[in-house]
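To whoever is on call:

I kicked off a structure prediction for a single chain this morning and the downstream step that reads the tokens threw a length-mismatch warning. I double-checked the sequence; it's 467 residues and nothing unusual in it as far as I can see. Pasting both halves so you can look.
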Amino acid sequence: MQANELRDMAKYTYDFFVIGAGSGGTRAARIAAAHGARVGVAEDLYLGGTCVNVGCVPKKLLVYASHYAEDFEDAAGFGWSVGEREHNWAKLIANKDKEIARLNGIYRRLIEGAGAKIYDARAVLEDANTISVGGERVTAQTILISTGGWPSVPDVPGKEHIVTSNEAFHLETLPDRIVVVGGGYIAVEFAGIFHGLGANVTQLYRGPMFLRGFDDDARAFVAEEMLKKGIDLRLITKVEAIAKQKDGSLLLDIAGGGTIETDLVMYATGRRPNTSGIGIEKAGVALNERGAVIVDKDWRTNIDNIYAIGDVTDRIQLTPVAIAEGHALADRLYGEPGRGVSYEFVASTVFSQPSLGTVGLTEAEARARYGEVDIYKSDFKSMKHTLSGRDERTLMKLVVERSSDRVVGIHVVGPDAGEIIQGFAVALKAGATKAVFDATIGIHPTAAEEFVTMREPEPEPVLKAAE
């Protein structure tokens, strides 16, 4: 290291200061410290961020819990006698909290074990190199913003009576009647969780079909299965106002007429980048119209020494993406800059019931990009339900670019969709063609083998002439 570089580093309290100790910020801090950088980390809420505390981890635990209702019922077809049963919501939440506390401790040990210092306080930028945190003023040569996202709720009259996913994980009791407002993956997942645990659930969405951005066949299939399970799914429905009644229940006024009475209203109407109250303006960092930090391909903002990763940049809002970005950035700044992040063929799963797994392009996206595509689909009852008697079906779909025979999209709706899609994501990343899928011998009997046994594409859609 040159003498002038040493002098520059000595001017600052830290070489690298991370604002937000979610999954991405934690990874960046750990790797930077491992490379020898002096690292400070500020977190004013909870270590691990959204995913560990009010996101994917506790949500998946609640999904597991909610699915036992069907598992108990399905057991009868396999010769099991299951007696009286009831669910204890308070015990579930207590056990969940215990696991989250354990994970919080692991995050603390990972950060401090790497040699970084944690500030359990809000960090506010005073300028491009100065941070006010925990009553101190510290400086940093390089700053990383990794403050994630936060639930966004529209200004509907009576919004003070609603909860978001943040509060849903900490309800003292599970109400009998719940209305979930929203059509994204969080809304769909919580509708399934609450229904599986015994609540009467109504899900409202203002559009003609929920899960916008996912493949059209897959989203329609999920809707059909949810309706069969008894969830009251109402599309093209908008809440105009919410009022609390004398008995404590809530009354929703619906646009166009009608009301819905319920005990709890949960809004899952999107998330916005968490950029307020951290001094973004003082540092001169540019934001887009949604309040997201604008970054280039190297995660650098318009201020040369300030970077941002993860949900705060409002690109791909997935924990593994933030982790990959944090690792790559720390390597680039303080280690060997060979690691990169590819945003092509990033797999994801909606833990709906049944779950939806996807990687690559939807059919609509593929047709827009390539023109001619072949579609392979299989819709079937899984082997388990031949004995359980449950009327649940599975959908599997391949999207193939016709000219190259390359598989460019895979979509599955059914049990363990996330476990299935992960392996096939590797195949898409490697550029597998439909011929490679056809030459692969399946594992029998499994649902996943359908992906390597589908032989005939669907007929091309008939386009009606304009009248």
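Update from on-call: the warning came from a stale cache, not from the record. Cleared it. Sanity check on the structure: Residues 288 and 294 are 6 Å apart (CA to CA).
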